[in-house]
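can u do me a favor
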């Protein structure tokens, strides 16, 4: 209980030291916000560049908690100050709560799909290889649309480059777990694994910048160490292929300026002016959490470092670029029930957004760049109880009136047995007392209500923050698919590639006909 008391004392002192917030304080604050709102002007230009940031698992409670974790309750993350904000509905075709691949399909292609499928429409059931081979079932997305418009493209992730979210940019697969051949059944012999599609097929082979982890999915023989272990949750390539070498050989054969990177030192020494294609694979599995990673030149780069380098490569194209950046370890931390780790990764994600804004501003292209920050889905993280203002967001909220045991401000609805902290004592089931532990440490398991194999996603709406050309089109609760359509319209790519394409296309007659068609279906 001593630790609990210290946290409460610290929180009380912060509030006591703050300025007295009388009514005039709030009226002044309201006037300042109104003045800022009056200054917002719609940018109706064409987006030469598009940056889509996806905080995997970054639901609204994660954003709120990360804001407090970083500073105070009345602070803001950089993207929370973007002028245009909306919400998107995250359900997929066959589930109320999506997985990352089905949500990514919606974000990138503008089409909702089945749970755990990649780049194929809802006519392809999970695991159905034959159906996924039908061309009419294969979805085009923002990567293909941008490439067809002559733009350079790229993606950066802290997960494996073959993982659920990035794979939806380039692969067509009925099972997101077919990252390499190791876990594919004999019935799928005609289907290519996701890693092969990245380097052998379009649009993957034409992506200019690919950065993340997943070496074990790309090549058969890998070096394993304590700092870079094999990811036991994923497949490991066993067919003798070296897809990294294949990527390098193909770029040489085509006479394309290219570079392969495997360490932070490689990234820092990259000759930006003399390279057009970059593949950076920095880990066997996912990249390490930022607080755990090796920060030496031989280690793994941060999300900000990868993002800045990717932007510098892509900015050379006069026709512009499209870059997708995923903060994937927010989600992975939540799945393990590690709230602090997830909040820390959210702050690292925010740093990548800030670094991008700074770079685009320095290059004089911020006004022609559409920047969108969103999530694929949330997690069942709850901010609850009645903690005093200024209390550590990772600390104790209050004591339960039912069992007399303290509980933390952050809890999960679901989690594994490390989160499900109940024990039998004197013939009764009792909840463990979190005040006896350091609940603020990395790797602390927040308590959960229901035991599952891991903390699961939630199905709530997720926010979209936008700035730049056509950002005002985000204005209410939208379908998650809407994001891809706004990108296409703003950048004049895909189904809006024609210079005459306009939202006036959707006149009353078009809307009426669309409604009739939907009713007919």
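np, heres the sequence
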């Amino acid at each position: 209980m001593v630790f609990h008391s210290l946290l409460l004392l610290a929180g009380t002192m912060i509030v006591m030291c703050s300025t007295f917030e009388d009514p005039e304080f709030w009226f002044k604050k309201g006037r300042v916000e109104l003045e800022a709102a009056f200054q917002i002007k719609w940018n109706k230009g064409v987006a030469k560049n598009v940056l889509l940031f996806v905080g995997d698992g970054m639901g609204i409670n994660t954003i709120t908690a990360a804001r407090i974790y970083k500073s105070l309750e009345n602070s803001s993350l950089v993207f929370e100050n973007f002028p245009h904000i909306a919400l998107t509905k995250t359900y997929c075709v066959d589930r109320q709560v999506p997985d990352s691949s089905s949500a990514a399909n919606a974000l990138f292609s503008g089409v909702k799909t089945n749970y755990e499928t990649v780049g194929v429409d809802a006519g392809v059931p999970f695991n159905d290889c034959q159906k996924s081979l039908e061309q009419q079932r294969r979805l085009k997305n923002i990567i293909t649309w941008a490439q067809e418009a002559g733009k350079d493209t790229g993606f950066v992730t802290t997960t494996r480059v073959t993982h659920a979210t990035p794979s939806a940019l380039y692969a067509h697969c009925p099972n997101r777990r077919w990252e390499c051949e190791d876990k594919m059944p004999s019935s799928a012999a005609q289907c290519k694994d996701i890693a092969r599609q990245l380097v052998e097929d379009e649009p993957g082979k034409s992506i200019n910048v690919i950065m993340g982890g997943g070496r074990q999915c790309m090549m058969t023989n890998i070096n394993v160490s304590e700092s870079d272990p094999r990811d036991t949750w994923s497949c490991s390539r066993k067919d003798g292929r070296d897809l990294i070498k294949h990527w390098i050989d193909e770029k040489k054969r085509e006479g394309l300026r290219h570079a392969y990177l495997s360490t932070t030192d490689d990234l820092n020494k990259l000759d930006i002016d003399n390279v057009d294609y970059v593949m950076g694979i920095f880990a066997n599995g996912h990249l390490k959490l930022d607080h755990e990673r090796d920060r030496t030149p031989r280690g793994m780069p941060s999300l900000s470092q990868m993002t800045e380098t990717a932007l510098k490569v892509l900015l050379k194209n006069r026709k512009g670029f499209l870059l997708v950046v995923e903060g994937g370890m927010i989600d992975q931390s939540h799945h393990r029930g590690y709230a602090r780790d997830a909040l820390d990764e959210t702050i690292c994600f925010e740093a990548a957004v800030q670094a991008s804004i700074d770079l685009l501003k320095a290059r004089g292209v911020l006004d022609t760049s559409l920047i969108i920050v969103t999530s694929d889905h949330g997690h069942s993280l709850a901010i609850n109880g009645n903690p005093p203002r200024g209390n550590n967001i990772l600390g104790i909220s209050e004591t339960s009136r039912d069992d007399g045991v303290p509980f933390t401000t952050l809890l999960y609805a679901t989690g594994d047995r490390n989160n499900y902290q109940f024990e039998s004592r004197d013939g009764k089931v009792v909840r463990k007392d979190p005040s006896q532990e350091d609940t603020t440490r990395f790797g602390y398991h927040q308590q959960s209500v229901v035991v599952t194999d891991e903390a699961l996603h939630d199905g709530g709406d997720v926010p979209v923050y936008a700035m730049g050309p056509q950002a005002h089109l985000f204005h209410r609760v939208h379908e998650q698919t809407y994001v891809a359509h706004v990108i296409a319209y703003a950048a004049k790519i895909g189904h809006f590639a024609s210079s005459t394409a306009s939202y006036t296309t959707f006149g009353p007659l078009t809307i009426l006909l669309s409604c009739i068609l939907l009713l007919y279906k």
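The first helix runs from residue 2 to 17. hope that helps!!
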